[in-house]
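Quick one, T. Sequence first:
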Amino acid sequence: MEIAKKEVVTSKLFDTIDVLDIYEYGESTFGERLAVSFIDEIYSYIGKLQTQYLLHPECRHLETKTKIYRNIILGSYLIIYRIRANRIEVLRAFHGSRSPRIIRQVRKVKI
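Structure tokens:
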């Protein structure tokens, strides 16, 4: 059985805030080379979501019967995405130390 290929889109919050925050933290902590490498790794995982969207576990902070909210665990970060009928929506990227209350607000993200 072949899994249907779906378009992957990212939210404005992910593109403008989350990735920039991750890069800035990585650059100040580990240096520019490793920060760029980590951002490349994030986008590599996102690119693979076209066909591997069911590979990652359901987000335990956003449980639903249909398991549409899933997360990629990459280092200390959670990259949360939502599975729709025609596309995959990458919503946010949070550091794992974030409050579950903040993470639950992802449901309100519009794309």
